[in-house]
Amino acid sequence: MGNSSKDDSTTDGDTSGGDAPPSKSSLFSEGEKVLAYHGPRIYEAKVQKAELRKKEWKYFVHYLGWNKNWDEWVGVDRLMKHTEENVVKQQALDKKQGVDKNPKSGRSAQTKPKSSADVKVEKEDVKSNVAKGKKRKNDSGAEKDNVSLEKLVKFQIPSILKKQLVDDWEFVNQQDKLVKLPRSPTVDDILTKYLDYRSKKENMTSDSVAEILRGIRCYFDKALPVMLLYKKERKQFHDVVQDDVSPSNIYGAEHLLRLFVKLPELLAYVNIEEETLTRLQQKLIDFLKFLQKNQSTFFLSTYDGTKGVEGKGKGKDD
User: Where is the composition biased (Polar residues) (predicted)?
Assistant: First the structure.
């Protein structure tokens, strides 16, 4: 993430905290409006909670204007005081990242608390969540969910694949183009190729890898209709995917990569031991490297022009 300015985030506007060292005196207070680093950008946020953990302050922040699903615990290195000077720094960073401004509000048009690729992929229907019934119902129940969310499977999507996600978003939402279906290779094909790749690399068939790939396929088939499609792709889905056909037999790498943006959130609700979680994280990272290695084979370089695409223009739910 864009923390080349990381040192500034721990010092700007912090001199008013008194003589007490940071480990004893919180730099930010509950209810305070702040600026928060996330991915390569800075976003407006509000401190919901402040806790001293292992001699370090941690802050539970809500990104202003976005669904509570984005709320998270961050360290002091991710936060800055909401000062005029730091707002200028935020705007300069947005300009460097090529983010368009809304002249009326002065806010970035794509200020979602994720990296530039995640921003565009995850705009689609946050409210249509696979784990919908398990989301926070109210603030009093937040504590229990926060514990599970701290156990997220964490992995970094390679920068090349992030660019792929950005292109994917732009093809569909800005250029009114769609992935031509059925794709080749399909998601099933890619998962099979990866299993073969791992088997040859290790000179044996790994049951654990096969099990994880079955899980990815299952998640993909269930998540695609409700959280992996942009509005403009829904008509195509209903036209192409019949009741007796699995999406993993029709869609390809473009939509599979979108799943990896959502996986940490989905797996937060699964009861997994910490050791198993670590192994799973390593295998998912390896799979992403496999996608990157085969990018030219698995991904389309351009999409098809479309007619009668659902939805017009660019909106927050796109």
Answer: 105-114
Measured between alpha carbons, how far is 278 from 266 in angstroms, rounded to an integer? 16
User: How far apart (Å, rounded) are the C-alpha atoms in residues 142 and 288?
Assistant: 32
Buried b vs exposed e over 269-280: b needs ≥16 C-beta within 10 Å?
Answer: eeeeeeeebeeb
Please name which of 195, 176, 196, 187 lies closest in space to residue 224, comparing C-alpha atoms. Answer: 187
d(CA 238, CA 291): 27
Q: Write out pLDDT tens, residues 130-163.
A: 444 444 444 434 333 443 444 556 778 899 999 9
Across the range 118-136, mean pLDDT stands at 42
Residue 229 token pair:
């499609």
Rounded to 5°, the CA angle 231-237-242 comes to: 155
Half-sphere exposure in the Cβ direction for 180 (13 Å, CA): 7
* Cis amide linkage into residue 158, ω under 30° from 0: no
d(CA 182, CA 254): 12
- 0.85 surpassed by pTM: no
Provide the mean pLDDT of the chain: 75
How many CA atoms does the CB half-sphere of 45 hold within 13 Å?
Answer: 32
Dihedral (Cα; 262, 268, 274, 277), 10-degree rounding: -20
Pairing of strands 79-81, 304-305: unpaired
Domains and CATH numbers, the chain: 32-96 (2.30.30.140), 150-305 (1.10.274.30)
Residues 122, 261: contact at Cβ < 8 Å? yes
pLDDT tens-digit map of 255-266:
999 999 988 888
CA 20 distance to own-chain centroid = 37
CA distance 57 to 39: 21
- Encode 117-152 in three state secondary structure: HHHHHCCCCCCCCCCHHHCCCCHHHHHHHHHHHCCC
Q: Is 63 helix (H, G, I), strand (E, B) or coil?
A: strand
β-pair partners for 10:
none
